[in-house]
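Annex B. Sample input.
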Amino acid sequence: MIQRDDYLNRLKIALGRSPITALLGPRQCGKTTLAHQFTEQQPSTFFDIESVPDRRRLQNPEWMLSRLNGLVVLDEIQEMPELFPVLRVLVDRPENQARFLILGSASPEIIKSASETLAGRLEFIELQGFDLSETGTDSWETLWLRGGFPRSFLASSEEDSLAWREGFIRTYLERDIPQLGIQIPSITMRRFWTMLAHYHGQTWNASEIGRSMGFSDKTVRSYLDILTGTFMIRQLQPWFENLGKRQVKSPKIYFRDSGLLHSLLDIPDTHSLFGHPRVGASWEGFAIEQAMRLIHPNTAYFWGTHAGAELDLVFQHKGHRYGMEVKFNEAPSLTPSMRIASSELNLDHLWIIYPGNEAYPVKENITVLPLKELGTIREQFR
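Annex B, continued. Sample output.
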């Protein structure tokens, strides 16, 4: 079993300062396993809301939960949204001795009751699949190909990993989305999701995708928001300010799990991946997602102008501005676009992320950095 010490520490801190902590993320990313690991060393009560006996125990939730002390875990909370106002009542009582950990498979935007009913009482932690700090940097090729879902990454063979991901996609389309009250035919959503795989790493263009599918801009936008709200897609928003240039103002679209991307692109193994025309875009999305998880920037953007200058990632830390450019190249060099971005955005440092092994400077504030050394950036910010 891969230890997830960073998340366990974040849970400890959050539950120490908030009466309710929400651990959110896609299905099968390890939320329940992590919660069980966290509860091993302390008094706790666990409710699996998809379990019939546990749902029966919660038929009178206020009476049941008010009797408990210590940590109370409510798994798959989105199955019983009526629990949110009950939790608000309980944690506001002076005699309350419990802390609540709620697990869910949809974002706060989907679980609106949580963000509205429990405002000021709730802290969110987002859990995704494994990252490089958990699997070890030497496993980056496997992590890139299979993605970070535990059962996909840890599968005994490429065939088993691919079969698991295909089953996950079917379950997500046929069960998970309908359970959220969203009525879209699974065939339609799969077609849209597959089309997005070919737009991975590109600027969102609702009109172009809508025409391809025969739907309106509004319809395809709603489909994108569903995939975003259930942690399948990341919409990386543009950074724009008054620089005297026409700048891109639509988000870029990335799959948050590279394994699902490869399944929808019909990429079964590393040999097929390296020969695929979308290998550069896949690498870009994988590197950006790893950077987001390892560095934990409060906000992150991309930057681009209509003249062609662009930067894959822009983020800030303690008043300083930094950038990243991702290159699937064994020996990346400084490009005019990088020079423009570094100067125009007044970056304190720019890193060029690549799949090689050696870090080296190319300019005073620009460094070529192997993907496996992304963690060194986080150490610099501590």
